[in-house]
Amino acid sequence: MTQLRLDNEREATTLVNQLVEAYEADATALEVKKLTQDKVVLQLKSDFIKPARKVSIKPLLSAGPLRTLSYVAYYQPVEQKEVAQARGSQAYKHLRQLEEMGLIKREKEGRTSIVRTTPDFADNLGISHDRTSMRRQLRGIFRKLELDQMEKK
Q1: For the chain, what is the domain count?
Q2: Is residue 1 domain-resident?
Q3: 69: domain range?
Q4: Which pairing describes strands 104-109 and 112-117: parallel, antiparallel, or unpaired?
């Protein structure tokens, strides 16, 4: 990772705005998107996500870990043993994978571990860091996924 040495935040904002404009002007599949908390990401434009999935070799997460991540995101903070009860014995393997990817964190509280998503999880999905807002936004995402699945049948 390269670190820029800038004089002030205004200079950083100007550079980010120039990047946004440059990517908007070019006929490219990428975009620079501003997130909450003064974060910025370079990502694939939404119009290109479905075509990219068709040529993608392997998804970042298979169905099992993705369902475990969904469970954690929706019910967080949640005890690790509760995740395992709901998702089965493979949940421990899923949690380890999700933690390695930086999407969740596990914190020891006494004899148990509490699981919650990381700020990177919310940033990657472009959703709120606030738990209540995140839950509402996730419900919307789940509904949309259900509708998409029904349309495919």
Answers
A1: 2
A2: no
A3: 58-153
A4: antiparallel
